[in-house]
């Protein structure tokens, strides 16, 4: 679910083509990794978040929650 929200945010703001240039990965690869069945690495997510923080001028906080 979170990948799809991130995908929507990218579509609504920087776009996949610009993000692809910034992270030096093909936009098709970014689409796949952020799809419902995608499996992005932590390195890829960190790089994507870094670009979003810079382009949108926002801070991103990550919190953990216990599993039930």
Topology record:
Layout: H1 2-12, H2 16-23, H3 27-33, H4 42-56
Helix pairs in contact: 2-3
Mean of the pLDDT scores?
A: 94
- Residue windows where pLDDT falls under 50 for at least 5 positions: none
Helical content band: 55-70%
Oligomerization: single chain
Overall shape: globular
Termini separation (Å)? Answer: 18 Å
Number of domains: 1
SS-based structural class? mainly alpha
User: What count of helical segments does DSSP give?
Assistant: 4
Count of β-strands: 0
Order of helices and strands: HHHH
* Radius of gyration, in angstroms, nearest whole number: 12 Å
Largest sheet: none
Strand content: under 5%
Please give a structural write-up.
This is HTH cro/C1-type domain-containing protein. It comes from Candidatus Scalindua brodae. There is one protein chain. With 68 residues, the protein is mainly α. The chain has one domain (2-56). It is 60% helix and 0% strand. The protein contains 4 helices and no strands. It has helices spanning 2-12, 16-23, 27-33, 42-56. Helix 2 packs across helix 3 (27-33). The relative contact order is 0.17.
């Amino acid at each position: 679910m979170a990948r799809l929200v991130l995908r929507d945010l990218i579509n609504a703001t920087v776009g996949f083509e610009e993000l692809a240039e910034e992270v030096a990965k093909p936009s098709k690869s970014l689409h796949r990794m952020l799809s419902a069945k995608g499996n992005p690495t932590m390195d890829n997510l960190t790089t994507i978040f870094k670009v979003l923080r810079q382009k949108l001028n926002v801070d991103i906080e990550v919190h953990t929650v216990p599993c039930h």
